[in-house]
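>> received
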Amino acid sequence: MNGPALVPVATMRAFTETAFCRLGTPVEDARLFADVLLRSDLRGIESHGIGRLHVYVERYRKGMLSPVTTLDVVREGPTTAVLDGHHGVGPVIAVRAMRMAMEKARAFGLGAVAVRNSSHFGIAGYYPLMAVADGQVGLAVTNARPSVFPTFGSEPMLGTNPIAFGAPTDEPCPFLFDAATSAVPRGKLEVASRAGQSMPEGWAATSDGRPSTDTDAVLAGIDAGAYGLLPLGGWGEILGGHKGYGLATMVEILSASLQAGPFLKDLASAGADGSARKQAIGHFFFALDVAAFEDLDAFRKRTGDILRALRSSKPLGGERIYTAGEKEWENEQRVLSRGIPVNRKLQQALAGVRDLLAIEEPRLPF
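>> returned
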């Protein structure tokens, strides 16, 4: 098969769950982990979906994260908590933390939970959607290993540090803003590399400020500091690069300072000798119970009215105006019916996982 294979969502879900179980993750946690990855592919965010399965497998095998997640409460108040994930599975930790924030919001109107010693938690947007489904507004942020230059800097210091915010509406598609504070997430470079593509100018640069479009060179050189991603807005201040830099720093403060965790270069995935190490990623989750402020149905309608007004405003040429989360919701409907596209390089990576873990069922169509 030369082109992408379309794998049914149920098949890929079962395969992913089986892989995590083979690595020692309890069944319920494996299902949750798989659901976070699959939601990314459903929404068309290939950078954080099953394309990262082999990366997680490698991190399990190197001891960078524990397959069994133990979550302890470090500090707790009526509306707040600090949790320690003990280097467990990021999505499992994140779901439990978001649930706690939502429970506090249901009881007191607001809930905020900071997390220490976690690992990569997949797409940030998964967690606000949990709150949205419960009639709440949700926010999730996380720091990440260093890959982004500060404005006017020549050393990658910040992670891609995403911000995700979701709100319920009276439409099938909720509002969901989910974006890195860098020009592009590192995972998008990995997607381009698997497709054998260069990247647009403006995503990354060398440490001496020269723009680069060589995807493989950037991926290979980020951790060594030879290359870095640019903040949202690009190089310098003219197009607002300082704004992306400021937002990334805001995320770093929420993700590290509130839980007394490591930050910036201390989150590198390799030690000074090049050996793999646990990253101790930090997260922050916030939930707001709409009913504590306004009737939920009235809130949904007003929020829907805002989005409809934006989409019905005068477009440029033949373009259509979208609101955040709409394209992803439409993609989810398509992928559920057609299957997940898997290109040749990803087929090879998944076949490697299949062989390594001796997974006979379910059988992948390649």
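>> The chain is about 40% helix and 15% strand.
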